[in-house]
Fold:
Amino acid sequence: MDRFRRRFINAIRTLYDGGCQAAPRPEIPAISPEEVAEAREFFPMPKFFIFGHARSGTTLLARLVRVHPEVHCNWQAHFFTQPPLLISLVSNPETAEWLSRRNNRWNRGRDLSPVVLRAAADFILEREARREGKSVVGDKSPNSALNGESVHLLHDVYPDAKLLFIVRDGRDAVISHRFQSFIDSVESLPPEDLEIRNAYLRDPGPFLRKERSLFTRKGLRRAAENWVRNLAETDAAARSLYQGRYLSLRYEDLLSNPVEVMDRVWRFLEAGDVSNELRRAIVQEIQENPDQEWQLQKEREIAATLQKGRHGSWKEYLTLEDVRIFLEIAGEALTAWEYELE
Structure:
């Protein structure tokens, strides 16, 4: 597994460096317990990270978690979840040589790379949290690009952090992601998908009656496989590496019991109990939907036909063949996370 991870990381470096490296960069060591203790003397705030598949409620969870007077969270730092990644700061072989050379008396005979990575991320996180007057800080970044590998990359730098993983019914997640791509990523759509989008714009009726699919069969299979892989790899790696510092939750439970779920989340983060004032703040925050407002402004014709964030919207859009394909690939994962199979 370690050999595969090294090859994977080297491939990412090659991709973003254009393949111009003269020699591979030596493996970046994980941060040591002593280095973690030193880092926390300079940057003492407890850290947490929110992972999840794209369109699974990571933003809603981040918005809710930061209504607590002691907790700050922002999003999309992608330190460990999307290339070029935090490790790109030290991925160049020349940088590695500089940070580990024997005549560099500051490195104590060890590659300084993990210290540099930790210090950079800590400063970014705590700088904003201090401005907000908060004492616990975290980042939310969907990890569906790297799945379980993102957990390993996180643990190499933040073995002392806490990890939250939010899961959403994969059928709802792929529908939400599909509409997002129709609105925000039109220029990236392949010809077949662009034709489906344009047909939906001309006349959404056949799609809303489930006479025509929003997906190509190949695209839906790939989306289902990616959702299953994200859940399986992330949960397995998090349970193994973080154990009691790991909490998984379902998006649907957050919608139906927001106060109860957020109480559990804040207790996990050791941020304190839910007061009556916090209860009111949770109810107010969950009623807002800034993402839907943005999509309505950008592409009203598409966004107006989708009630964003609702559980079970897949029943209104997936054709019978879509459902069959998704269950064939993801049925076991849906059952494992206690989702209904219809």
